[in-house]
Write a structure and sequence with these properties.
Blueprint: E1 4-7, H1 21-30, E2 34-39, E3 44-47, H2 49-55, H3 59-62, H4 67-70, H5 75-87, E4 90-93, E5 97-99, E6 107-117, E7 123-132, H6 134-180, H7 188-212, E8 220-222, H8 224-238, E9 243-249, E10 257-259, H9 261-278, E11 282-297, E12 305-314, H10 321-324, H11 342-352, E13 356-362, E14 366-374
Parallel strand pairs: 9-11
Antiparallel strand pairs: 1-4, 2-3, 2-7, 4-6, 5-6, 6-7, 8-10, 11-12, 12-14, 13-14
Helix pairs in contact: 6-7, 8-9, 9-11
The structure holds adenosine-5'-triphosphate and magnesium ion.
Residues 270, 273-274, 338, 342 line the site of magnesium ion.
Length: 377
């Protein structure tokens, strides 16, 4: 059972001005929390539009029924409303839990239930205010990932450093061997493989060291449309032999974005490459940009910056739910030639730009990666 805090009903000062009922109704219609009121017998007397969305049912089918029917099988909700109706005090659930819905996924929510008092001071029912915690949970997860990454990065950087020196020795010895052998010696094939594979390990280690101790970002105005066009062109080239359609839907009104051009190019390349690699033969990759209507980056002392959304979607193999948690972990890969560092690097670049990542994926249907980056730093 989630932890809760309870408080007794504070005495409310009498309103000095007449109540504007139209304004109250407008607030309830527009607020992004579900507001559900029940009378003292437990019958639903108010069900705002957000409640309709959260509960996936209409106000018409909910008004007048008992809350026990509305929240049938959802013990925590039943318990909270029951407590408030019986005891007349507010309860806030501090930890959050899942609201089960008839059609969609359970919704992570946080609930506050308060008694309603009539003008004469009698308890007249209870009101529940339900807040969607999906976004908060995503941010918590992003923070956890960042922590995990910085710990792994430090460890791996030390290890990479130790490996690089003996590797240099092996490559030097192989090169000497090449010189000692005659050009037509069959053994030259072996030395070539040794040198090539040492170079490959070196490449992986450099990527890793970059991840652990990246160079400081250099911010300048970046033309996002040009960068994404170039990325798509490069990947189109790499997709020869496959039948993949690349579509760009770029909002032309987006101004230059403050960012590190090299790092952003790497970010987009990794994302579009992943999208391409998820498609076996035929498919499509859509790259889309727009200004977010939901989020702004706020920093003390400066104007809030709009956020730009960059969405890369594919209709490839998708990601199994059990793997979604691990894809940002360095070295997690499902590809025979993959390093598993692509997304870990992307995550770092997005963080350096004070942006955030969202991934949604359905196995065998496709994946959408959305990056939100502030226009100004
Ligand atoms: N668009 C996508 N569709 C399906 N799976 C994906 C997608 N993007 C990432 N993944 C999964 O996440 C894993 C990790 O991705 P990441 O880019 O970090 O490494 P990688 O692609 O395997 O290797 P590398 O980036 O070095 O080539 C991939 O192996 C794949 O399983
Ligand atoms: Mg990759």
């Amino acid at each position: 059972m989630p932890r809760k805090t309870a408080s007794s009903q504070p005495t409310r000062p009498q309103a000095a001005r007449p109540v504007d009922h139209d304004l109250y109704a407008l607030v309830l219609e527009n607020i992004d929390r579900a507001v559900i009121a029940v009378d003292q017998q437990g019958q639903v007397s108010l069900f705002n539009p957000t409640a309709e969305i959260f509960m996936e049912r209409s106000a018409r089918s909910s008004l007048g029924i008992n809350y026990c029917e509305l929240f049938a099988g959802q013990e925590i909700f039943l318990y909270l409303v029951d407590c408030v109706l019986r005891e007349g005090r507010s309860i806030t659930d501090d930890e959050g839990f899942s609201l089960q819905r008839p059609k969609g996924q359970p919704l992570p929510v946080n609930v506050h239930v308060a008694p309603i008092f009539s003008k004469s001071g009698h308890q007249d029912g209870a009101v529940m205010i339900i807040r969607d915690l999906t976004r908060a949970r995503e941010l918590e997860e992003a923070l956890r990932r960042a922590d995990r990454l910085s710990m792994l990065g430090t460890l791996a950087a030390g290890l990479a450093h130790e490996i690089k020196n003996p590797l240099g020795g092996i490559k030097g010895a192989a090169q000497l061997l090449t010189m000692e052998l005659t050009d037509d010696s069959a053994l030259q094939d072996y030395t070539r493989v040794m040198i090539r594979e040492v170079d490959r390990i070196n490449g992986i280690i450099e990527e890793l060291m970059d991840l652990a101790t990246p160079r400081p970002s250099v911010f300048s105005p970046v033309n996002l449309a040009r960068l994404l066009n170039d990325t798509a062109l490069l990947q189109q080239e790499a997709a020869r032999g496959q039948n993949i359609e690349f579509t760009l839907k770029l909002d032309p009104s987006i101004p230059a974005l403050q960012g590190d051009e090299q790092l952003l190019a790497r970010l987009f390349l990794n994302l579009v490459k992943n999208a391409r690699e998820a498609i076996k033969r035929n498919g499509r990759v859509i790259i889309e940009t727009k200004i977010s209507s939901e989020y702004h980056l706020t920093s003390p002392g400066s104007r809030p910056s709009p956020m730009v959304l960059i969405k890369v979607s594919d209709n490839g193999c998708g990601i199994a739910e059990s793997e979604l948690e691990r894809i940002f972990t360095p070295y997690f890969t499902t590809k025979p030639q993959g390093t598993g560092l692509g997304l870990a690097i992307c995550q770092k670049i997005v963080e350096d730009h004070r942006g955030f990542f969202q991934i949604s994926s359905v196995p065998d249907t496709g994946t959408t990666v959305t990056i939100s980056l502030p226009l100004r730093q």
